[in-house]
Amino acid sequence: MNILVTNDDGIYAKGIRALVEALSGLGKVFVVAPDSQKSACGHGITIHDPVMVREASFEGAEKAWSVSGTPADCVKLGSSMLIPDKIDILFSGINQGGNMGTDILYSGTVSGAIEGILLGIPSVAVSLDSHTGDDFEASQKISRTVCKKMMTKELERETLLNINVPYVSKDRIKGVQITKLGIREYTESFQERKDPRGRVYYWYSGTPKNVFSEEDTDVMAVEKEYISITPIHFDLTNYRIINDVKDWGIRYE
Ligand code: MN
Fold first, then answer.
1. Nearest-angstrom CA–CA distance, 102 and 88
2. Full set of structural domains in the chain with CATH
3. Within 13 Å, how many C-alpha atoms sit on residue 52's CB side?
4. For position 155, what pLDDT does the model report?
5. Which residue of 24, 97, 204, 244 sits 20 to 30 Å from the alpha carbon of 88, by its own alpha carbon?
6. Which phi and psi (to 5°) does residue 227 adopt?
7. Helix (H, G, I), strand (E, B), or coil: what is residue 105?
8. Measured in Å, how far apart are the chain's first and last C-alpha atoms?
């Protein structure tokens, strides 16, 4: 089995090392990851600049490349140019920081997996709900379990699994909940600073705030120390109100 691994924290992040270590016993692992931190780059791709690719040494991987682009660039390049064999499964992560609710719209980690499903590759995104913690043991364990499960189960096309792991010791985790996306809001704040020439610049410094989320959501599951697994697809259509909008009678006249 050929496993493609990517992330958005960059090829030198501890999380991607932990992920490769977790999966390397299950198949041939190929790593194609950004050469620098690309968190919150969403589903961007690089079209106005050249994309540089460098072969990298990576313990546990069959082959590895660092790419001067986004996770979506990495997945596109990996599957079409770098890896000659057919990729059976894609894992993106292990991200430092949860990717729940509306986070997934900004997340490079989840976008790596979305690019995977766009290319017809069964895909999984894994995030640890801590920006500073680097104990990936529980995340490694669930990644291995899900990878094995995906070898035997057929996941509906155009659907990825988004895994979020609470940051508690691996024995305190209560189990797994299959969830829907919850609500994640941030206190929107920017720090206003000045550069050495006196010009003002801004640095985003939003932090998540507690808002109401239903019981069966990713946010609540992780809050209650469960591993959350959400099936995600990229169809953003709001089917519930298609007929309402038709009733508006919008005409081009
Ligand atoms: Mn990240």
1. 28
2. 2-181+213-246 (3.40.1210.10)
3. 5
4. 87
5. 97
6. -75, 130
7. helix
8. 56
Give the global pTM: 0.96
Q: How far is the CA of 8 from the centre of ligand 1 (A)?
A: 5
Q: How far apart are CA 35 and CA 12, in angstroms?
A: 8
Q: How far apart are CA 104 and CA 121, in angstroms?
A: 19
Report the distance separating Cα 167 and Cα 114, nearest Å: 24
Q: Cα of 94 to ligand 1 centre, how many Å?
A: 8
Contact in structure between 170 and 141 (CB atoms under 8 Å): yes
Distance (angstroms) between ligand 1 centre and the Cα of 96 equals 6
Q: How far does the centroid of ligand 1 lie from the alpha carbon of residue 240, in Å?
A: 33
- One DSSP character per residue, 18-36 reads HHHHHHTTTSEEEEEEESS
The pLDDT tens digits of the residues spanning 49-96 come to: 999 999 999 999 999 999 999 999 999 999 999 999 999 999 999 999
